[in-house]
Design a protein that fits this description.
Distance between the termini: 72 Å
Largest sheet: 6 strands, antiparallel
Number of strands: 18
Strand order of the largest sheet: 6-5-18-15-8-9
Number of helices: 10
Helix content: 25-40%
Strand content: 25-35%
């Protein structure tokens, strides 16, 4: 009889929009007790997840599971890099970019079922100005909007849409000097994204060919575009064809240095922070152990699009109706907010 693995579930009760009070019961019903001794701990303040994860590493806990969104995953994961403690993910956020890239089901019970299979791989992660990221980082419009969203002091689609509508019309592309291992180039860009994994979240693929096993980041440079270009860029992002758009320049690198004319925002896994004019980004190869979906084989040169699509379909089949209802309510809320603002004006 083999020894059980010790596993800690770190639950962020504030992530996403769903109530997390039922999570312990679902874990109790779903976790394989023959394989694992487990505990559940809820976070109580910002940074608490990282503290718990560090204590787990010090206590030689085998697996720490982040139950939350991309911010929670980042907070837990950065405490586990270059250790023997593996990261598990139960996605409960609004974007869930890393979980989607790894084909972790959005359904909580199915995500725990993946953890039960305990398929652990050593994967790459990235660092931007000493800040670890596991999915994407970047600068430009997406970082600017992330900062405005954080400053708004409230969460939700209406807040996000208001910021995009208000600030997007005023945002001016910047000039960036980008240096990698082979050359230096100059770009006027709307944004620059450095991707360890393929998407921002919600199946919006900023770097459709990115993989976490090649020791490289996929750099996406979005050049200035007009209102006529925007719909096609959006379509390409969700169709995994953004790299074929004429307004997009892409390349792979292990490390890059970026210089811009003035300080501004950057983001790491969606969390914004103000920084200076010089930005360094690099990949730490195979620097974190993560529980992955054993039914998905990530091929560095030829990602298995059929398996990925099929996994997405199966994972989301049971929540399509719920998502459609949420989308209807979001559109109604946005329309109501915009109408209210127009009436005031």
């Amino acid at each position: 009889m083999t020894d059980k693995k010790e596993i800690i579930f770190i639950v962020n009760p504030r992530s996403g929009t769903h109530d997390k009070s039922d999570i312990p019961r679902v874990i109790e019903q779903t976790i394989d007790k023959a394989k694992f001794d487990y505990r559940v701990q809820f976070t109580e303040y910002a940074g608490h997840a990282a503290e718990i994860a560090r204590r787990c590493v010090a206590s030689d806990v085998n697996i720490v599971v982040a139950v939350g969104g991309d911010g929670t995953v980042n907070e837990v994961a950065r405490s586990l890099v270059h250790t023997e403690t593996a990261l598990g993910i139960v996605p409960c956020g609004s974007g869930n970019g890393l979980a989607r890239h790894l084909c972790i089901p959005m359904d909580i019970r199915k995500a725990i079922a993946i953890i039960n299979r305990c398929n652990i791989e050593a994967l790459d992660y990235g660092v931007i100005n000493s800040l670890p990221f596991f999915c994407t980082c970047g600068m430009g419009f997406d970082a600017f909007i992330s900062l405005k969203f954080a400053e708004a002091g409230k969460r939700g689609p209406v807040t996000y849409m208001e910021n995009v509508l208000r600030e997007g019309l005023k945002y001016k592309p910047e000039v960036y000097e980008v240096t990698d291992e082979t050359k230096a180039t100059r770009h006027k860009a709307f944004l620059i994204a450095c991707a360890n994994a393929s998407q921002y979240g919600n199946n919006a693929y900023i770097a459709p060919k990115a993989t976490m096993t090649d020791g490289l980041m996929d750099v996406t440079i979005m050049e200035p575009f007009t209102a006529f270009d925007a719909p096609q860029i959006s379509i390409d992002m969700f169709n995994k064809t953004l790299d074929k758009n004429s307004k997009i320049k892409t390349f792979k690198a292990k490390r890059i240095h970026i210089h811009r004319s003035q300080p501004g925002a950057i983001h790491y896994d969606g969390d914004p922070i103000m920084t200076g004019t010089d930005i360094d980004v690099h990949i730490e190869e195979r620097g974190i152990k993560i529980i992955t979906n054993p039914d998905i084989i990530e091929d560095d040169k030829h990602p298995n699009a059929i398996l990925n699509a099929f996994s997405d379909f199966l994972s989301n089949l049971n929540i399509v109706r719920e998502d459609m209802e949420k989308q209807r309510k979001r559109i109604q809320a946005i329309n109501k907010a915009l109408l209210k603002r127009l009436t005031k004006n």
